[in-house]
Design a protein that fits this description.
180 residues, mainly alpha, 8 helices, globular
Amino acid sequence: MTQNSFPTRVVSAVQDSPVSRVLERVLSTVTAPFVPAEDSPVRTEVLGHALHPVLTDLPLGCWASASLVDVIGGRSGRSAATRLIGVGLLSAGPTAYAGLASWSRLEGPDRRIGAVHAIGNDVAIVLFASSFLARVRGQHGRGVRLALLGNLATAAAGHLGGHLALSRGTADRSGDPEES
């Protein structure tokens, strides 16, 4: 990715934004009582990297699959798509908690980017929860539209998370606060 590429400019705008500074402070205050202890299983180093990136596969896979089932499954796929949204929601909690464990060790621009990443994923969770509720209430079309918006939110937030893990190497530093 070149320095002038659109994705790079987006990340730079996020990290330098005064809004990201406010979001980071608010998120720090709100989540402070919930930050996992140093010996928490979500801070494990057994994988050689942070747990959060591995856990993201389940909710993201479920939600993307639900949208695929919506598109190609027709009426017969509605129940499966609803179940996939539900499983994604159930797995989002542990995924977010592991993300909080990693994020709590970040500083500076990485912490601000991480805060926007987290808020973006929170927006996605709300959209998928709304999709699930619409579906169980028989409003399948509304549920499909909300899920598509949720997938867009996860893509945007995921870009920021991927930048942190891959370009900034934060997933490799999660076990050592000295390196964050």
